[in-house]
Write a structure and sequence with these properties.
With 142 residues, the protein is an alpha/beta fold. It has a single domain, classed as Rossmann fold (3-Layer(aba) Sandwich), CATH 3.40.50.2300. The protein contains five helices and five strands, in the order βαβαβαβαβα. A five-stranded parallel sheet has the order 2-1-3-4-5, with helices on both faces. Helix 3 links the parallel strand 3 and strand 4. The chain is globular and about 50 Å long. The chain starts with a strand and ends with a helix.
């Protein structure tokens, strides 16, 4: 089964570009803002990775990033930030908050695909380890 990626990006052109890059390998859903992303999550949509446009600190997308990273519901979902900002402060704050990576626009499409593949492979391993540990804990083996 293909893994699912949510793109939260205000630019339709970038949504199309990223979808074109990722869709041969992944199921891609894109929305233009954090409100639409929250509506999608509220309807039961589950993403394996979120690609999130964060232009600056004062955006709803920055708040969405914080919510995804601190929520127990989404704690296994890696977030990859895409930003036109070259602010080191924004990049550092995002990385310190726990995003998996921060790419500055314009980005290399090949690198985006490679990084997406890596993050989803790492995420799969993390989930399997957590499930195994939960099983062992429930069995009281250790």
């Amino acid at each position: 089964m293909k893994r699912s990626i949510l793109i939260v990006e205000s630019s339709k052109a970038l949504q199309y570009l990223i979808t074109t890059i990722l869709e041969p390998k992944y199921v891609v859903k894109s929305v233009q803002n954090s409100r639409h992303a929250i509506q999608l999550f509220s309807s039961g949509y589950e993403a394996d990775l979120v690609l999130l446009d964060i232009p600056n600190f004062e955006t709803e997308n920055f708040e969405l990033m914080d919510h995804i990273l601190t929520s127990s519901i989404f704690n296994d979902v890696p977030v990859l930030v895409l930003s036109a900002s070259h602010s080191e402060e924004l990049k550092n704050n995002c990385l310190e908050a726990g995003v998996a990576d921060f790419l500055t626009k314009p980005f290399d499409p090949v690198y985006l695909l490679e990084r997406t593949n890596q993050l989803l492979a790492e995420n799969t391993l993390d989930i399997l380890i957590k499930r195994r540990n939960k099983i062992f804990t429930n069995l009281n083996i250790f």
